[in-house]
Structure formats: structure tokens, C-alpha cells
Amino acid sequence: xxxxxxxxxxxxxxxxxxxxxxxxxxxxxxxxxxxxxxxxxxxxxxxxxxxxxxxxxxxxxxxxxxxxxxxxxxxxxxxxxxxxxxxxxxxxxxxxxxxxxxxxxxxxxxxxxxxxxxxxxxxxxxxxxxxxxxxxxxxxxxxxxxxxxxxxxxxxxxxxxxxxxxxxxxxxxxxxxxxxxxxxxxxxxxxxxxxxxxxxxxxxxxxxxxxxxxxxxxxxxxxxxxxxxxxxxxxxxxxxxxxxxxxxxxxxxxxxxxxxxxxxxxxxxxxxxxxxxxxxxxxxxxxxxxxxxxxxxxxxxxxxxxxxxxxxxxxxxxxxxxxxxxxxxxxxxxxxxxxxxxxxxxxxxxxxxxxxxxxxxxxxxxxxxxxxxxxxxxxxxxxxxxxxxxxxxxxxxxxxxxxxxxxxxxxxxxxxxxxxxxxxxxxxxxxxxxxxxxxxxxxxxxxxxxxxxxxxxxxxxxxxxxxxxxxxxxxxxxxxxxxxxxxxxxxxxxxxxxxxxxxxxxxxxxxxxxxxxxxxxxxxxxxxxxxxxxxxxxxxxxxxxxxxxxxxxxxxxxxxxxxxxxxxxxxxxxxxxxxxxxxxxxxxxxxxxxxxxxxxxxxxxxxxxxxxxxxxxxxxxxxxxxxxxxxxxxxxxxxxxxxxxxxxxxxxxxxxxxxxxxxxxxxxxxxxxxxxxxxxxxxxxxxxxxxxxxxxxxxxxxxxxxxxxxxxxxxxxxxxxxxxxxxxxxxxxxxxxxxxxxxxxxxxxxxxxxxxxxxxxxxxxxxxxxxxxxxxxxxxxxxxxxxxxxxxxxxxxxxxxxxxxxxxxxxxxxxxxxxxxxxxxxxxxxxxxxxxxxxxxxxxxxxxxxxxx
Length: 853
Description:
The protein is α+β, with helices and mostly antiparallel strands. It has 15 helices and 44 strands.
């Protein structure tokens, strides 16, 4: 029936699946995207249920198929002969199968044609020895604002055909239309409207029933759109979906649960992409394509929740290399969007948004290295040529973020690091120091910039820019020297921006009264900054002015003053880091505080170790340092926990595996970055073991809750923070590197030297078959060309099919113009006369009557 991989996914299998339109094939919407779940039930639950929330316009809206055979009604799982399982899926398609009765088999095929239209093709196979008469009814149920909505039946012209209205929501009037469908709800007196059709199937034959759900602004528009999709043959659309699915890797590891997690992760990656819209000239993405997201009340997208608020660059850096062989246009397009929105001075925003909103924070310097990873797969020189200048300007713009003008930039905002709970810098946390990140020079920022410079240096050969090559090489030397100077004993360390010293800190004032002048006369052996915390009172921000009097590094008396706007305020706490590095602190006092406030002051501690000390593994660093960092990262008493590399050492007093009362957790972004660095450091096998443990974790979590999360518990299989987050899927690009197989297109395979996966794996993509083990590699192209190699490899191999079959192409899933002309858009509805209309005219083509409950 299908060339999609066959599965047998039961309710307790490790999967995360949604039904959403595929941007490769059909229209998507950033302001009115409707995605669905196909739920499998057990016991007295519905055996099969389609469910959505219309982007939170509905608490829950569902459709349940109900079968009637010889006066027997079947819809609960316990009434099916064999309960439903999902047998195949693609980004915009989910197929479930079940036995309604013995020898009566159902194939329920669901499609997302656009962001507002889904369809179902239910095929019943009669394997009995007698003819069957079967009725399908789609029963609707909707809840909004904690109340069940009244549904309605639409009586079409002629009176013997009906459609089902699922209610009225904000700019939404969804309709369900079954091919040749009608309703017996009126004649039977049923209080729950449903719509369906009756078919007869001879022994040994099969028959199909199609239905469409259309969710447009107006009930007339929805009905017209549903009729259009039922007026065309779907086979061409199905062929397109199947052809497009060949571009998505099918991976067989020998562990079926891992395979399913990987398949769902690729599915989610493709689903995350939206077509060009708003200010983005190219394809973009969202972090959670789920039923509760997708609707913008404002119509601009500026009111979307966080996971729909723009191109988050940490997600982009993981997503785009994984998409490069699947959807290269989108992988490149996401980077092109950043450059297209760049300011003249090279500034690129950290979070550009389709609705035109911006964070006004400089983007993390990870774009050039990400672009280069994409290029290594697509080999599209035009992509590099078009974006090199912008990426270069962005790189050099970072060197303007250098307050002390020593050639080493500093972070400006914690959000640029994508983690705001480092014990050294975390704000609003009792256990964190709360130092101002911009007052410190950090090894992670230099690591990012070195990786950017390395990527730009490679690009200069493509664009043939000798001057740029020389300039970037000089920048690499400056950054390399700076990184070397940050090596302290056995790790890379933070250091003060101005003194360039890494030193411990201590509390010099512990919860002093807010209205008191505190005489300290505290001399410092090593000059240091002062971090002042103000607590107490209410959540109201006091109109405070802080004074710190002392002696600076030049031996001169100095008094530093900071008003309320210089503090970082969070949940009743204000934190300020002094601009001055003091050699002595004489007095600290505040104006504008009452006795209910408390003042705590400490000198800044830059000696803490966290995951940022490992970040230079991204670069080519001296062998001794690389081995030392690798040992630290892979030490199970330090960074390596059961689920991966955590944010601070487990030996730290501030470690919390749940990232609640301390720093910790497993974030796939850092598994991706540190994992790639460890591979380059010669630890591919250990990274492979780590990733397999992460897959085991995901198997447990997805079997339980069927959704990913923003991050995970360090030690237990527990999903934390925002559920459904794209950052929580399996680290696909890292796994691709571990397996050492990149099927970039239908006629080319790249085999890397390393095989950190360490066990037999089979990958199919673009019609190419690759099997890799520790002893051998077999590559088979669709043309029949076969290449076999002994393993392990001594060097990387690129295998090209010199006589390939034609490249597979596919068309959009869209309605022909002839259908749109035959069923035109309806005229605007007349002004309402009564609360419930009884007759509606649609361009004089059809008459519909609305029979409500």
C-alpha cells in the first residue's frame, strides 16, 4: 500500500507524532496553522480519535469514527476485534490500522493538505465470505472555555446531504464533510450531531470512504474548501507524499525503539518548517508545531507564545545541518533569513520574528559554522557566495562588543549563551552569584568566535577573497592567543574583563540593613568587583541609589554610584555588579531603602567550572588541553551523567539534576556542540555510548508522555520545562556524524573515517542504501551500482554514482484552478438576522440549512 516504513505503534510505544502540513509540499500559515493528533485508545476509550485545539482557540475538539455493522456500533477500543495501531507516518500523513471485526480490516489514512485542511481516507477490507453493509459516522465533540460546545448539522441543497459544523471560534468556523455523506442525527433524534455514509462491500473486496475537515474563517468558506478537496482525486497527492518521504532518512539500528525515536525526530524536524512569510524571505521554523500553537489573535504573529516567537539560533544550529540532506532549501533559507535581516553595521538579531518583532540583542556567533555544515552537505557554492559578506560582517561586529578594547569581545546578555542559570551569572536565584556577564571574558565566547573564523576562512577559498582570508587568519591568531591565556591549571577559566585575573570571591556584607551606612574597610589582595544584592520589601522596585566607596587598582579613592535602573531586578531581588575593580572597599550604603530591605555584598568569584570550560572542544586546541577537557567532560563524577553531559560538575554544591534548585539538566544543544567537539578530540566511541543512553532516555519518556521537552533531568528519564520543544528531539546531526554516513543526494554518499556508533546500522535515503558495520560498508544506489569497502576506514570516502537514475521530483499538493473555478469562493454572508441562521445562500450554487441541537 505504501513505501513508507512499516511500524506497529501501540499507545505505549515511544513516539511523538502530530499531523501538520509539510512545507515542502503545501501551503503553511504562521498565523492560522492547525495541527492534529491521531490518538490511539484502550479499554472504553475511543479506539481512534483525531484531536486538535485550533491553536488554543478550543480546549479540545475531536472527531471519532463510529462504525455500525448489523446494528452493532463499534468505536471503543474494547469493541474492536484488534485495537488500532499506527503503521506508517510522514510529516503530513499518519496511517492507522485495526480490525473492526474478525476479517474486517480498517486502514485509516490521514493527511494534512494545508495548514487549514486535513483529509481522511478510510479503507475497509472485507475478508469475510459474505457481503457487508457498513456505516461510518464521524462523531464530533468540542470543548471551549471549559464548556461543551453545541455542534450543528448543515443541510446541503437537496436536503439529503449534510455536513457537520464543529462550532464557531475566533476567525474560525470548521466544517467536516464526508463524501456522499449525510446524517441520521435528525431522524434518530440524536442529541450529538454526526455525519457519515453507508457503503456495501462484496466478499473479498474493499471500499473507501473519504472525508475532509476545513477550518477557514467563515462557515461558507470552510464548506466550499471541503467540497473542493473532495472533488479531486487524491492519488497524485499520495504519490507526492510518498516520493517526498524518500528524502527523509530511514534508519535501522537493530533496536526498534531507537529507530522509532529517530524517525519521529526527523518527522518533527521537517514539520517545524514553515514557508516564507512575514519579514522572512525564505523558509523559517517554529519550535513546537502542536495543536495548542499556531493561531495569532492579532493576525501578525507578534502575540505567539515563546516557541513560535522567531528563529531561535540555538535550535537553528541543530536543525539546519540535519535538514540539509532532507530539505536543503529550508536549511539554507533559515541562514539566509538571518543575513537578509542584517543591519548595515553587521548586527544580526538574536531572535528575528516573522511578525517583525526583534529582541535587539546581538545573535550568538554560530551562524558561519552552521552555514558551513550545511554547505558540506549541499555543496551549493551560491549559498556561500550569497551570504559570505553578511556572515563576515556579523563576525567583525562581535569585535565591537569589547568594553576594555583588548581585542577580546564580551557577552552582552545572558540570553546570548542560551542558559541563564550558571552559578556564576544566574540572576534571581538564591544559590547563584548573579555577576554581570558583560564584566567577564569567557572561554565559550572565544570558542564560538574561533569556530566562526574557521568557517569563514574555509569560505574565502570559495569566494576567492584573499584579503578576507588574511584578515580572518589574523583574527584567528588573536583569538587563539586569548584562549590560551585563559587556560588555568587544568581547564579554561573565566576572568575579569579589566584585570584579566581569575579569582575567588567572598561575602563582605551579609544581609545588612537597607537604611544603614556599612563601614567595611575591606582590603583585597587581588583587585575585584563587588556584587551587591538588595532583597526584601515587596515585588515593587524601590527607588534606590547605591554607593560604594573604596580604592581602585591605581590606588586612588573612588566612589561608584548606581541608581535603580543599573540593577537587574527579578522577583523582589535587585543585583548590581560594580564597574570598578576595587583594591579596597571602605563603605557601602543605599539611599531610598527602608529597614525592611537587606543588602548583601560579595566580591566576584570567577573560579567556578561549568560547561563553558568545555566549549573550546569546538575548536582545534593543543592536544594536552583537548585530552584534559575530554577527560573532564566524560568523567561520571563530574560532567557525564546517565543522560549526557550536564551543565555544571556533579561535584559542585550548586548541582541539581533537575535544574530547579541549582544548575544541571541535559540540554540537547550542548550535547550537539560538546559531542561534535569530543568526536574531533578522538572520543567518538564514548560519544556514541552517551547518545545511546540518551536514546534510551527518550524511549522511556516518549513511551510515557509521547512528547519531547526543552530539556531533561540529568539522571532520571524525566522531561522538564516546555513540552513538545523541538530542542528535545534526538540530536540528529550528531548521530549522523557518529554513524559516519551522509547521503547528501541520490547520487552521492559521504563516509567519514570515524564510526563512533560502533554497531551495525542501515540507512536508506534518496533511494540509496548504506549498511555500515565495524568490519564492512556497503553502498547501493538506485541505479544498481554497488560499492563495498572494508572497515575501519583509514580516511573519509566520497562515493558518487557516475550513471545515476533521474533525480526524484515532486509537485506541490494544491487544488487545480479548474476545481476552484467550479466551486468558487462564496459571497460574503448577509448581516445576521437572528442568533441562529436558518438559510444561507452561496452564490446561488447551493442552499444550506443549519439544523442545530
